[in-house]
């Protein structure tokens, strides 16, 4: 509820605000809006502003054209080899970046102006912004598209220069040059060995100085034979001794191998060298040759001159020029992209400026109406425009005033309706929360579907007890969630409901679940809208298994009570009569064997019947439990000590307890009876040799104590597992079938549950789970 004082203050503020608005709203002449529009269009200041912007746009356009012409026709830019030695690229890039920043600032100036008007909440700023942004988008989209297309073409051209076939050819030429030089060196190293061997065969290892003319003659012949440009002999001090070169041109180009280069490489032979001279390239190989006691060095030489050398030098120079061009790849690409960006941004600036100019010419005549709408949007529904205009705008203003009055009336009505709706929603929300809590915690399965069979609601009891398969059930079709047997039953009930025309239909049935049979009651309802149209179906499921089990247990107890009553009374006279006959006639008759056998049989069978009657009496009159705090480990230890001394030699009884188990509310005497019965059954199931494991554990999260009795005996037939706890069901030939029924009743009275299952290998496992406190339990359950 609102404070009455706050309502009173708010009402006073509204009345004072309306008075101020009436005082501040001057009455304007009828033609004031038209005169303002004409003044806006024809004012000299506005025309001057328009002319200055047009001149600025023209200047920027001329500047772009001049820069493009400068880049295309300036000689310094046409000679790519001069890029490494001049400042043109750097200067142009910086100039383009500066122009790019200027164009960006011009665009940002108009956008910032719009944002400033938006922040100042000037009238009409939204329309200005929409028109301006509209022109920006209309102009920017094709320009940006043009930019990317042009940039793609430009990139393709530059890629051809820097990364295309031309670059690949120059790289191959470089490899060819390197291979050519290496081939020359390799051939000379090969031939220098052959030439040295030829000389040994020719000169028979004579000293060179003994026959110089013959040596020169041999050198000329060998040069011609092996197509060499020269053969040179060095003495042991690596000084030229005898030389023979092909012609005078090559004699001028040739020079001895530098001493420092020779001495640095005397460790390996033959050696190859390459020296570039002014107009040629010298390739040579050197090999030491020993003749008699003298050591000489033989050099063979090839000298490239003429057109071959010129072509190789041209290729090398082109490669160096292209490598220099590659170093300028990034500046050239940057400069080209900057030009495109500059052109695009200037065109966008033109569209921005034109959109802003057009927006101003449209917005200013309707600013008065925009101001009124803003006042209305702020909640001032008492505002009225006191402006007399006879044209269409006057009709619009009259409609606006009428609208404000209607809005004021509607707002009061809406406020009342809103308060009522809030109260209704609060009540409905509380009801929904209550219903949801009930449905979530009720021990009944609830399952609803729409008209198409898709699940709209299911509660946890239905999911848990009917083992629905899908992880996320809501929204799935019921056929994919329910089992095949459940689907068959549900579809049959649905057909009966549709054909019978009833609002609901009920059916009791039995289902197989985890190798056991459960008894359920299923009731299917047809859900209808308030108009009577079907909106889905609701299935309510109740598990009657425990009710049936309890009913059967009560019935068997009544049967046991009557049997014990009817049989127990005549047993004692029968036994006494048989004993009297034995006492009186045994030993007095000639044929005592038959009398002895018959009377002994009567006495023994009467004792067996008495034992069975006592079991019936115990089952029919189980005492109520008297729970007290005790540790179940102590109960297990007592039972273990009771059985351990009398165990057969080939049977082992093992006990393993959990020390974390707290004290539990138990009836010690009845729990000893439970474990005594279970150990009797386990030992009876072991034929000759085996073991029985008795263990306990504790779950802190569930606050449950678990006891397991595991044997490796003969086990329980699968067909008897689901009814093993029913009275008079036993696997022993002489058993009464009441032991496990009594065990189940005691565990149920303690709020726990018991289940029995066969081990995978051999034997049986009995699991008992008991709550630490009886208040934490619900109803004892049996699980097979």
UniProtKB/TrEMBL annotation:
Residue ranges of every copy of the Histidine kinase domain listed in the record: 562-774
Transmembrane regions: 54-74, 89-112, 133-154
Segments forming domain HAMP: 360-412
Database matches in InterPro entries: HAMP_dom, HATPase_C_sf, HATPase_dom, His_kinase_dom, HisK_dim/P_dom, HisK_dim/P_sf, HssS/ArlS-like, NtrY
UniProt topology in membrane: Multi-pass membrane protein
Ranges for region Disordered: 1-26
Enzyme Commission (EC) number: 2.7.13.3
Signal peptide: none
GO biological process: regulation of DNA-templated transcription
Key words, A-Z: ATP-binding, Cell membrane, Coiled coil, Kinase, Membrane, Nucleotide-binding, Phosphoprotein, Transferase, Transmembrane, Transmembrane helix, Two-component regulatory system
GO cellular component, one term: plasma membrane
Catalytic activity: ATP + protein L-histidine = ADP + protein N-phospho-L-histidine
Compartments in which it is found: Cell membrane
Enzyme class: transferase
Entry-linked Pfam families: HAMP, HATPase_c, HisKA, NtrY_N, PAS
Biased composition (Basic residues): 7-26
Coiled-coil region: 400-427
GO MF, one annotated term: ATP binding
Record's protein name: histidine kinase
Organism in which the protein naturally occurs: SAR324 cluster bacterium
């Amino acid at each position: 509820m609102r404070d009455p004082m706050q309502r009173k203050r708010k009402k006073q503020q509204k009345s004072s605000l309306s008075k101020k608005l009436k005082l501040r709203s001057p009455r304007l002449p009828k033609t004031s809006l038209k005169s303002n529009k004409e003044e806006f269009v024809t004012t000299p200041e506005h025309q001057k502003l328009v002319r200055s912007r047009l001149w600025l746009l023209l200047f920027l356009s001329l500047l772009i054209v001049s820069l493009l012409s400068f880049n295309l026709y300036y000689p310094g830019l046409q000679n790519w080899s001069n890029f490494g030695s001049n400042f043109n690229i750097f200067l142009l890039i910086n100039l383009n970046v500066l122009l790019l920043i200027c164009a960006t600032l011009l665009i940002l100036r108009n956008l910032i102006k719009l944002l400033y008007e938006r922040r100042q909440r000037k009238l009409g700023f939204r329309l200005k912004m929409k028109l301006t942004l509209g022109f920006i988008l209309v102009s920017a989209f094709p320009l940006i598209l043009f930019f990317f297309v042009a940039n793609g073409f430009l990139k393709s051209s530059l890629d051809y220069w820097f990364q295309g076939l031309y670059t690949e050819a120059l790289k191959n030429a470089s490899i060819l040059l390197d291979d050519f030089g290496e081939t020359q060196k390799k051939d000379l190293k090969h031939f220098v060995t052959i030439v040295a061997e030829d000389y040994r065969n020719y000169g028979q290892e004579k000293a060179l100085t003994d026959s110089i003319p013959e040596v020169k003659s041999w050198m000329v012949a060998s040069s011609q034979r092996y197509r060499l440009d020269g053969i040179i002999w060095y003495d042991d001090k690596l000084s030229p001794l005898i030389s023979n070169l092909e012609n005078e041109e090559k004699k001028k180009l040739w020079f001895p191998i530098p001493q420092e280069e020779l001495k640095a490489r005397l460790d390996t032979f033959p050696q190859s060298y390459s020296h570039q001279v002014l107009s040629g390239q010298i390739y040579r190989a050197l090999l030491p040759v020993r003749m008699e006691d003298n050591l000489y060095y033989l050099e063979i030489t090839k000298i490239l001159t003429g057109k071959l050398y010129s072509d190789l030098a041209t290729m090398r120079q082109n490669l160096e020029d292209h490598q220099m061009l590659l170093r300028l790849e990034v500046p050239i690409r940057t400069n080209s992209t900057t030009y495109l960006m500059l052109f695009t941004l200037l065109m966008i600036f033109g569209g921005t400026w034109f959109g802003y100019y057009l927006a101003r010419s449209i917005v200013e005549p309707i600013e008065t109406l925009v101001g009124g709408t803003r006042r209305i949007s702020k909640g001032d529904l008492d505002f009225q425009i006191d402006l007399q205009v006879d044209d269409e705008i006057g009709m619009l203003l009259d409609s606006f005033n009428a609208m404000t009055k209607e809005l004021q009336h509607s707002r009061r009505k809406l406020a009342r309706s809103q308060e009522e709706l809030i109260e209704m929603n609060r009540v409905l929300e509380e009801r929904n929360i209550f219903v949801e809590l009930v449905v979530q915690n009720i021990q009944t399965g609830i399952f609803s579907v729409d008209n198409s069979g898709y699940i709209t609601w299911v509660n946890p009891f239905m999911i848990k007890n009917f083992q629905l398969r899908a992880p996320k059930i809501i929204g799935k079709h019921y056929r994919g969630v329910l089992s095949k047997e459940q689907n068959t039953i549900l579809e049959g009930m649905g057909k009966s409901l549709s054909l019978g025309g009833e609002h609901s239909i009920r059916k009791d049935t039995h289902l197989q679940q985890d190798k056991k049979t459960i008894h359920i009651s299923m009731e299917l309802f047809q859900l209808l809208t308030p108009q009577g149209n079907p909106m889905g179906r609701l299935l309510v499921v109740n598990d009657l298994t425990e009710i049936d089990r309890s009913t059967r247990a009560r019935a068997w107890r009544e049967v046991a009570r009557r049997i014990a009553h009817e049989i127990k009374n005549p047993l004692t006279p029968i036994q006494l009569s048989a004993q009297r006959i034995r006492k009186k006639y045994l030993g007095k008759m000639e044929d005592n064997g038959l009398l002895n056998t018959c009377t002994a049989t009567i006495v023994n069978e009467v004792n067996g019947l008495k034992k069975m009657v006592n079991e019936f009496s115990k089952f029919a009159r189980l005492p109520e439990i008297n729970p007290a705090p005790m540790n179940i480990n102590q109960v297990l230890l007592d039972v273990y000590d009771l059985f351990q001394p009398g165990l057969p030699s080939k049977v082992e009884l093992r006990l393993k307890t959990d020390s974390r188990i707290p004290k539990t509310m138990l009836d010690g005497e009845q729990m000893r009876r439970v474990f005594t019965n279970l150990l009797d059954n386990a030992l009876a199931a072991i034929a000759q040799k085996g073991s029985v494991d008795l263990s306990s554990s504790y779950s802190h999260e569930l606050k449950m104590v678990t006891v397991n009795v595991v044997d490796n005996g003969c086990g329980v037939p699968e067909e008897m597992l689901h009814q093993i706890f029913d009275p008079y069901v036993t696997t022993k030939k002489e058993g009464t079938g009441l032991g496990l029924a009594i065990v189940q009743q005691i565990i149920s009275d303690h709020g726990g549950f018991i289940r029995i299952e066969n081990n995978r290998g051999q034997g049986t496992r009995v699991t008992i789970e008991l709550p630490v406190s009886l208040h934490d339990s619900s109803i004892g359950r049996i699980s097979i």
